[in-house]
Amino acid sequence: MTAPFPSRHLLFPAFIGLYVLFDWATYIDPLYGLNITPWNPDPALGLVCWLRYGWRAALPWFIALLLGEWLVRGMPAGLPLSLLLSLWLTLGYGLLGVALKRTFGSGGVFDSRHRLFQWVLIVVVGTLLNDVVYMSLLSLAGLIPPGEWVAVVLRFGIGDMVGVLVSMPLIWMLSSADGRQRLRQTVWHYETLGYLALAIAVLYLVFGTIETSEFKHFYFLFLPVIWAASRQGLYGTALMVFVLQLGIGGLVKWNNAVNIEVPELQMLDAMLALVGFSLGIVVDEVRQVSNDLKQSLRLAAAGEMAAALAHELNQPLTALSAYGKACEFLIERNDGGQGGEMLKSAVQRMIAESGRAAEVVRRLRDFFRTGAMKLEPVDAGQLVSSVSQQFFTPLRQHGVVLQVEDMPARAMLADRLQIELVLRNLLANALDAVQERPEGGRRITVSAQLLDSKKHGKGSCLQLSVEDSGKGVSPALLARLFEPFVSSKATGLGLGLVLSRAIMEAHGGSLWAEVGDHGIFRMALPLARPAVEGQENYVAA
């Protein structure tokens, strides 16, 4: 968003001062006394101002260029030519700013690998074209010796290109309140001091004596960049590569190392930036996908738990309705004695059922807040019977036979609400699978067996199996079945099995499928046993 007009009275003078300061700090080894130096981050500052304010930034940028020619270099090209050169640089970089604005909109810079490639392409082409015209004007004025045109084009163009590539992302982040806040949130961490300290150490290692350095150990400079990118994404990388550029430029200026291989340093800066930005973008994209997945899983959990909540509340609400009608009947009779006792008993039961409903809601709330579970002994037979009854109507409508084999008289240690959710999901998947079969061949079987500690490795467990007469799970589908958003149903989100497995693993159990000519899903949970004989407290067996 464009800042209000009064603020520009203060912003533009600050921009001019900072631009000239950048120009002075990076004026290391001018060529023929002109503005041809190996380090040019100041165009990045001008482009950011242009992206923020458009053509209104042209005049302050033009003034900054003229002041730089006068204060830093003493205007070696003379006033008329300096005016023309500054005018062209303002126009040329303004056109580059327009191209960036049209491509990236208000974002200004890249936020994906594809947009990074676009940004680099626009910056490289724009800076080189700007440089060609600039050097051609100097050559026509006789300020560049014959035959040196290509050399100065490369030196000035690469300096501008590297300065923009390395510096512009961080300057853009600092140019807005949202960017500064995000940058502060990202890098305001003790770990940032770690990779900054590492950057200083590797700069000393690689360029301890920069005048005689042959860049033999340049690869060490990638260590702090990779650290920053992998831990803090694009924002951490932008800070790191800018610090490295300042460090290298500062060493060159401090040591007056004018005879070093400038192109090698320029390309090193560029490669550090591009590798770091690529890694940072990948890290940010992975984190965004992870956050989106967590949100999708929360929504899936909300849907599944809503079904569980509806089932759990149905019984106490039905009971409350029945007791309420009984109270109305007793009040209408208005007789004392036994009728009063019956009324009192009905009211007490209403209170108990309302407390049961409140407990269900509380457990659901705790589950979403903290993932807390209420472990209790859950009888396998009662669990299967309770969930199976919910499918009575759809089973009858689709002509599906549900066979429940004898259940061992053992209890599992689990959160009943969550385990019912898992079993309900398996039965719903089986019901969908068998509908592809003709009537008479639609069958679902629920069975259970005990697993000893040697076989399962987690202590005594109870394994529940849900098998159906559907087409089964293929090896290819099995490899991806429990991945998010993988579903064989046209309308499925592919999150039910992911959520179910997460619940089972949180209970110390497991959930898996088996390849076969029919559907086979199995879930295993630890058995419960009394913590002390004769008491009702239970622990895992």
TrEMBL record:
Pfam family, one: HisKA
One term of GO molecular function: kinase activity
UniProt keyword Transferase present: yes
Membrane topology: Multi-pass membrane protein
UniProt keyword list: ATP-binding, Cell membrane, Kinase, Membrane, Nucleotide-binding, Phosphoprotein, Transferase, Transmembrane, Transmembrane helix, Two-component regulatory system
Alphabetized Gene3D superfamilies for the sequence: 1.10.287.130, Histidine kinase-like ATPase, C-terminal domain
SUPFAM superfamilies from the UniProt entry: ATPase domain of HSP90 chaperone/DNA topoisomerase II/histidine kinase (SSF55874), Homodimeric domain of signal transducing histidine kinase (SSF47384)
Keyword hit for Transcription regulation: no
Tree of life domain: Bacteria
Subcellular location field: Cell membrane
Matches recorded under SMART domains: HATPase_c (SM00387), HisKA (SM00388)
Residue intervals passing through the bilayer: 12-33, 53-72, 79-96, 116-140, 152-175, 187-207, 219-245
Protein name, per record: histidine kinase
